[in-house]
Amino acid sequence: MSIDEDIPVAATLIDLEVCQAVCEQDQALKVDDSDGEECVEENPPTNAEMRQALDILKRGVQHRSTNFKKQYECEQYKGNVKE
Predict the structure, then answer these.
(1) What are the tens digits of pLDDT across the range 33-65?
(2) Considering the chain, what percentage of its residues have pLDDT values greater than 70?
(3) Who contacts 67 (Cβ-Cβ below 8 Å, separation ≥6)?
(4) Is 28 in contact with 42 (CB distance < 8 Å)?
(5) Considering the entire predicted model, what is its pTM?
(6) Dihedral (C-alpha) 5, 59, 19, 12: value to the nearest 10 degrees?
(7) Which of 34, 42, 45, 53 has a CA-to-CA distance to 70 between 20 and 30 Å?
(8) So where are the chain's domains?
(9) Is 3:71 a contact under the CB 8 Å cutoff?
(10) DSSP readout, 18-67?
(11) How much is the pLDDT for 83?
(12) Residue among 70, 62, 76 nearest 2 (CA)
């Protein structure tokens, strides 16, 4: 039994949030390939969008850090019980 069975779901959710943020940014790109050359017009992200993306990444790092610590403590406990 794992420490936290919803870890894969939470990790997938965070990945999904990041992918959605990236897809929203990709919608701002316009590509014209009619003459064989790629012409890209990109709207830079707003400060609010950048803060939102950063918050999503921070939550992912914090979540993984917490789960790593829990897993490490569990492994240490299992090692001490066997001895």
Answers:
(1) 455 566 666 788 889 999 999 988 888 888 888
(2) 51
(3) 3, 4, 7
(4) yes
(5) 0.37
(6) 0
(7) 53
(8) 46-82
(9) yes
(10) HHHHHHHHHTT-EEE-TTSS-EEE-PPPPHHHHHHHHHHHHHHHHHHHHH
(11) 58
(12) 70
